[in-house]
Amino acid sequence: MSRVHNFNAGPAALPLPVLERAQREMVEFEGSGMSLLEHSHRGKVYEAVHNQAIALLRELVGIGDEYEILFLQGGASLQFAMLAMNLLHPGKSADYLLTGVWSKKALSEAKLLGKPRVAADTAKDGVYTRVPRQDELSLDPEAAYVHMTTNNTIFGTQWHYDPEVGSVPLLADMSSDFLWKPFDIKRYGMVYAGAQKNIGPSGLAVVVMRKDLIAAGRKDIPVILRYDTHAENQSLYNTPNTFAIYMVRNVLEHVKGMGGLAAVEKTNRAKAKVLYDAIDGDADFWRCPVEKDSRSTMNVVWRLPTEELEERFVKEATKAGFVGLKGHRSAGGIRASIYNAAPEESVAALVEFMAAFRKSC
Amino acid sequence: MSRVHNFNAGPAALPLPVLERAQREMVEFEGSGMSLLEHSHRGKVYEAVHNQAIALLRELVGIGDEYEILFLQGGASLQFAMLAMNLLHPGKSADYLLTGVWSKKALSEAKLLGKPRVAADTAKDGVYTRVPRQDELSLDPEAAYVHMTTNNTIFGTQWHYDPEVGSVPLLADMSSDFLWKPFDIKRYGMVYAGAQKNIGPSGLAVVVMRKDLIAAGRKDIPVILRYDTHAENQSLYNTPNTFAIYMVRNVLEHVKGMGGLAAVEKTNRAKAKVLYDAIDGDADFWRCPVEKDSRSTMNVVWRLPTEELEERFVKEATKAGFVGLKGHRSAGGIRASIYNAAPEESVAALVEFMAAFRKSC
User: What is the ipTM of this complex?
Assistant: First the structure.
């Protein structure tokens, strides 16, 4: 088999050894005479996997007992609604930092449930080329929480600092850059991430949430949508996505084997540098619309002189074995998603292809 | 590898050829140079799988264009809340037919959202040994809907008739007996099922819903929890559980290859008959607490003369390679879940084991 160079924005590339392990273990899991898919979520075999996934995440990030780790279904999109349902008590306000499409979707769900405020918005004519500076945040000290999206897949921007929000809990959608580097969980009341970009397959959201926030959630909402329901049942209130949790466990083991998040960060920064250097190195032809301080290490977006050239680039790249390079339909241009599992070799091959393409023009 | 006899209540046994196919295709999917897990949910490769799953379900059940087929996350438990959020408009009532734990959970969620009524309840001292007869249903012709659970995993009961509910939409949780036989979708406004019993792995709910009911849903609830959101986006509003949908597609293909739902029903009835005959054939020792008309073809529950004997039975069965026979903690006794994918050979082996155990007592 020859692997293509996968730059998909999510679901995205997974580490090859993790896929090979899933293949080996698909029909029979650990000598149990059945697939993991066939194991009860309340049996010892699955339970061990479930608990290992939680323990590994605690270890890799450094998450203390004051936080709960939850494995929920519905992706980040359900979290947009769930966090507001739980934490935006009637009459209360919450602050939203707008940096792109996903943060706006989170805001929209909150509007149906309470009175959220826009505490920052760096859009110009509907386009985001940077995240806000600290001095641009107009925060309400009485807010129930501050919500942010740490990385913006579509516009290719990323926060490179933790905003100061005082004593208000900071909630972060980290779907597209969760575990790209070490981070200080204590700065956040809650972080959450759809698994399908950096840590596993689709169909799972990982939620890390401070226990006092879980406890303070509304009790008059559906039981299945309350965080305390899932916390009290170790994410086994109802049948979880057992396969996705198994895959996350395996990805986390792989990350640990690579040297943990510090090693992951080093590789990710190196990959991003190679690509941005290639773009900046020929600024007459390639153009990254994102301001330097806000450039994403996960989703690198850039333009070519004309849309015709962009179309040709994507077409020829596809033929040459590069997948997923077309920019999001709302942004246009080119996008290379280089999450944790995108190999350095793929980035090197892309840069080489870019140079050859440039010459051919 | 030697396969155990898997009687798990869910997640449950899957057809071996389906697992073997998943194994073959895990690392590279259809010559695409990547795993299905790494494919974009908006790409052509995944899209084909997604649409095949829908088309196969339409074909196998005979579902017309007046129904939408949705693949949602959160399992049946989220549907308990979602259906009430969408269809129980303020001030309206809905009728719930109580036949066990799951129907009660569905009712509990509705209580937080509107004014549901109990239209039938066959419990005696908290235990269910049968489903209600038609003449026991006290239905409200003004109800927003009637909700039922077609099969009750814990108490081992199953509806063997479609209740008459007049012009009120009938909503059925079919999680544990979906596709066990052909059924007339036109009798239902909505049916839904967690995939992890009869049709796939965990982390997916299949929803079949009449389009007029979808359109009549509330618009003032979170977007992600509205059925029309998912219907308008072919279940791709947010990233779905692509692996589970792929597995469901493969299970449905397997079912089609076996001869469709009529063939599945024949096998299921044969398996259930073998097991109930063994129980009834030695009524001094084994005892099925469920009335004959309400006995489940999917979850067969029975008791032994003492709890000590039950414990010994489970222990010795486990040693002999039978998995999942311990009854649910709230019901006690023995339970064998014999969903579509439980092989006839496993049921034959169990009956043989039961006879040997009986002799040893």
Answer: 0.98
